[in-house]
Amino acid sequence: MNELPCQTAPWWKRWFIHPILKQLTQGISAEKLAWTIAIGCGLGIFPIMGTTSLICFIAAAALGLNQPVIQIVCHSLWPAHLALILPFIKLGQWIHGAPPIHSSIPTLLKEFFAHPWQFFQDYWLTAWHAIVAWLLLALPLIFLTRLIILPVLRAAALRLEKRKETSA
Questions:
Q1: pLDDT single digits (tens) 111-143
Q2: What does the CA dihedral 82, 87, 93, 94 come to, rounded to 10 degrees?
Q3: Cα separation of 38 and 131, whole Å?
Q4: pTM score > 0.90 for this model?
Q5: Structural contact between residues 145 and 45, judged by C-beta atoms closer than 8 angstroms
Q6: Which of 43, 26, 20 minimizes the C-alpha distance to 152?
Q7: C-alpha distances in angstroms, 107 versus 85, 110, 113, 156, 162?
Q8: Domain ranges of the chain
């Protein structure tokens, strides 16, 4: 069976597309895979640094989702995760009518690493505001992602099944 393309494929296909398609050949349904990808997208942008892998692990374990795929999705979103932390903070502060913080991500990181406990005391409410904003946006993102990716995965599963039948 001519399964998935070889090492000459671009890096993004080798590290993202091929592992997901491989799951379809191993009996995972397109529906379950779509939920895994969608939930990985939503959780991969959770606005607290250093938590997304653990949150994805717990969600996948609790919901019976595919661990490798949810981690691939989560880790592929790290640029979006970092880019969205400050917007989530600002949106959360706007939602709650809280005064804005006037710090950049590098400044916040320096404060965190210099005095972690003090950082937590100073910014726990800001983190809560960011989480509320994330919740409001992540839930629609999860459903929209699933809606978009499910037909693509169904078509890929069908193509893989036909390829398997013709080679058998």
A1: 888 998 998 898 999 999 999 999 999 999 999
A2: -170
A3: 18
A4: no
A5: no
A6: 20
A7: 13, 5, 10, 45, 54
A8: 11-167
